Amino acid sequence: MEAFADEADPSGVEDLLAAAFQVLVTDSGHISKIKRMFVLDKRWARWDGECRKRTSLRFSGENVMNVIQRAVALGVGAALLQALMLVAFAWPATNIAPRDLPLAVAGPQAAVVEARLSGQNPGAFELTVLPDETAAREAINEREVYGAIVTGGGAPRMLVASGAAPAVAQQLTQIGQQLSGAPAAPVEDVVPADPDDPRGAGFGAMALPLVMAGIAGGVLLTLLVPSAGGRALGVLVFGIAGGLLSMLVTQGWLSIVPGDYLTLSAVAGLVSFAVAGTVTGLATVIGRAGIGIAALTMLLIGNPFSAATAAPELLPQPWGAIGQLLPPGAAASLLRSVAFFDGAGALRPILILLAWAGFAVVLLGIGAIRDRDRAEPALSTGPASEPVPVTA
What we know:
Elements: H1 16-26, H2 42-93, E1 101-106, H3 110-120, E2 125-130, H4 133-141, E3 147-150, E4 157-160, H5 166-180, E5 187-189, H6 201-205, H7 207-224, H8 228-253, H9 261-286, H10 289-302, H11 319-323, H12 327-340, H13 347-381
Parallel strand pairs: 1-2, 1-3, 4-5
Antiparallel strand pairs: 3-4
Keywords: Membrane, Transmembrane, Transmembrane helix
Protein name: ABC transporter permease
């Protein structure tokens, strides 16, 4: 019928009379078979194309403005996030100082030393007076104090535990030199750090990879696994494999953490499960915004205030205490207790990590219930039944 398009009405309204006349005259044998007739008007096509072009230009201009606005907003947001990360990581490191640091004083002159320390450094130490050196050593081994000043029999002697925190041990050594008045004051490291990592740099560097790997694992499971049950299984596998592999590297290869391999692997696995499970669980319950909430909490608050390279009492308060309530801080404390103190002081960080792991399980359980509720109506409805032909 394209051949008759020029015979349509110039106003753009299709006129079928001319085209119908041609068909009736030239092929009257098919009149009875004609049910519908279409006329293709090229002028209409050109007008429609121009309209589409104008509409496309208008929408493309709006899209360009939206893209520009989004790009500017994302650039500003990324800059603010960068500034926030600098504050979160640099501010605690530049404000290291003892704040109610647990310290024991033992021996016959303990009262004199206590008064001197309280006068010189008010609020710096939480002093505990013990009867003798044996009690002081026991307090250090039980992680009740970071060190002890033992008096009697000459100049005061300092007992430290670099396994608890090398930074604290260094500061206590300086205090011991001030009290004795000698540049080489007698200092004994009761619980030393690993010989391959005497300053604790390697131990402190473990915290960030554990957190980052947990966040990455949670994000991948959220994006690639649609069901809550599948995500829970993935988090469990990640926790087991991550714990075994991380301790294989840090203990077997780098040799910076002493202790039982399987016990340390269980600790690392619990940390991995808690971090990845929290990311995945929040994303399952509240959507992808949960990824950002969990990641920022673990990375910007949990990691810089974990005290992995120092001690919670050296960080600005209350952030040092808050950091111990998050998985990175609890992980650092638990690993030190297991690796250097035979599990002393491990109860509190274990409970904190178990609480986070339980929180993750609850969130994933809520997601599993939602998945089941969505699936039940579809199963009850079932596929539409096909009509059955009936013979006459």
